Each structure stands twice: as structure tokens, then as C-alpha cells.
Amino acid sequence: MFELALSEIARHDRIILHRHEHPDGDALGSQIGLRHILLENYPQKEVRMVGDGPGRYAALTGFCADDVPDAFFDGALSVILDCGAPRLVSDGRYALAARTLRIDHHVFSGRFADVEVIEPGFESCCGLVTALAMEAGLAVPPAAANALYAGMVTDSGRFRYDSTTAETFERAAFLLRCGAEPARIYPALYEEEFSHIRLRAQLTMQIRFTPHRVAYLYTDAAAARALGADAFTLSRGAVGLMADIRGVGIWASFAETEGGVLCELRASRHNINPIAVKYGGGGHARASGATVPDRATAMRMLDELDALSGGGDARGD
């Protein structure tokens, strides 16, 4: 699966690691994990990381973007991780590199790298990076194992989502043997201040339902200011509040920002990805997102989710 990817890595002495903007645990974990693997196995290579800040994952990952001048891209390889579209790449200078490699598990929506390893059946991009290391017999130091395990945990919903397979657990076991520490990782991921618990309670009271039982939250700009929460918390961070409501198969969060309305869509059995793509977003069959210009557009998206929810048990993978 990884022959071409490994060949590109082997023949470039300068490598820049990218991932999607506004990173989650999987984006950061795959980027940081791959960096540690490359430095462990190819100490002669110069490996740099670029991208915006880690947000709530700062304490876990220790991510710090490198200062990479444009000249560093000349003759180099840019590796794009966990990113399904060119407009979402954090640091668009990947186009300056001599060669580009993409490793991703999102639904394929078009090629934009010279070499691509796209496997939507994987639970996470961290799982893909782990599989690459296993296939190639690369050493995985503990720092890489921790980063990759954290990404697997977050993108699989703590190994609950239907993308979790027997192979997922085999890769997780491999990372444990390489030094991953779940007892340290889980508190770093999921412990929170009481103020965040109180915020979740406030948001829970605002959950509403469409006629066909789509659960949703809509947080307008005024409410966001009153709550004092950032856009990530009110969008991707809030959508999980509705994940386990009995009788709900689709749920969504909408949060107004200066740049538009952030939309996070989730489902237990329907394929919501085509709706996200229609509105300029993308992702996975059961977890997708988009940014739309205004509330009216967000409500049209919600109407389409409601129609999908009322259409029966179709699982359009």
C-alpha cells in the first residue's frame, strides 16, 4: 500500500509535514507522529512541521510550528496529512515543493498531490501512519506512539465508531508495544475545567429537534459572546453532546463566526457526506463539516438533513 509513499520519503532529504487547518487530534497526531518516526529512522533528514496552532490539544501534543522559509521547499517533499481538499491545507506553500505526498482517510473528492495514499476505510490518519510504519518495519519511538494513539482515540470516538475494526485494535496494540501510554493520554484528552462542564450543560439545554428527529444546536454570534466560548468549542466541540440521544440518527451543530457559520454534521447510520460536499465541505460518511455564509444557508442544510433522516434506513457508504 505504501511503496510509492516510502520511495518519496526515502529520496528526499528535506521534508515538510502539513495537515488540515484548525487541527483535531488526528491531524496533529499524524503530523507529530510521522515527524518522530522520520527523525528516528532517517536522522540525516531535515523534517519540519507547519500549520496553525493546536488549540485545545496543546498540552497533549506539544506542537510547535517550525519557521520554514520558502527556500526550504526547493527540492523538498511536502507531505499532507489528514486533509481532503487543497483549500483546507494549513500552509498552502506545499505547492512550492518539488514533490507532494498525501496520506488521508477522508472520502476521496479529487487528487491534488503527486503521490496519494487515500484509505477511507481507516478510522484515522494516525492509523494510516501507524500502518505505514508497521509495513516498512520502521522504529516508532514512544513520542510518536503517544501522538498516533491519541489521534486514533479521538477520530474513532474512543473506538466506538463503525470505522473501528479488528485492524484498528491491532494497530493500537502495536503502538502500546512501542510505548504509548493510555493512562497519560486519556486525562490529557478528556479532563476539563468545571467551567467547561457548566458550558456543556448550558448548551445541552439549547438542543432542538427537527420533525424527523435531527438533533441540532445553533449558536448565534450574540449567544457565543455571552457564553464566552471559542468557535471550536461551539462547533466541533459541541456536536458530541448529541451523539447518544435515543432515537436520533443525525445530529448537527451550527456556530456563527466572523467568517460564516461553522457546521459540524454527524450520523450513526446515514451518509451525510454528500450534503456537506454540496455546501462546500466534506469529510467522512458519518462525520462531515462545512462553513456556510449565513444562518439561512445553514437552515437549508438542516432541512436536507431532516429529509435524509426521514428517508429510512439507507446506509449510503
UniProtKB/TrEMBL annotation:
<dbReference type="Pfam" id="PF02272">
    <property type="entry name" value="DHHA1"/>
</dbReference>
<dbReference type="InterPro" id="IPR001667">
    <property type="entry name" value="DDH_dom"/>
</dbReference>
<dbReference type="Pfam" id="PF01368">
    <property type="entry name" value="DHH"/>
</dbReference>
<feature type="domain" description="DDH">
    <location>
        <begin position="14"/>
        <end position="152"/>
    </location>
</feature>
<dbReference type="InterPro" id="IPR003156">
    <property type="entry name" value="DHHA1_dom"/>
</dbReference>
<dbReference type="InterPro" id="IPR038763">
    <property type="entry name" value="DHH_sf"/>
</dbReference>
<dbReference type="GO" id="GO:0003676">
    <property type="term" value="F:nucleic acid binding"/>
</dbReference>
<protein>
    <submittedName>
        <fullName>Bifunctional oligoribonuclease/PAP phosphatase NrnA</fullName>
    </submittedName>
</protein>
<dbReference type="InterPro" id="IPR051319">
    <property type="entry name" value="Oligoribo/pAp-PDE_c-di-AMP_PDE"/>
</dbReference>
<feature type="domain" description="DHHA1">
    <location>
        <begin position="236"/>
        <end position="307"/>
    </location>
</feature>
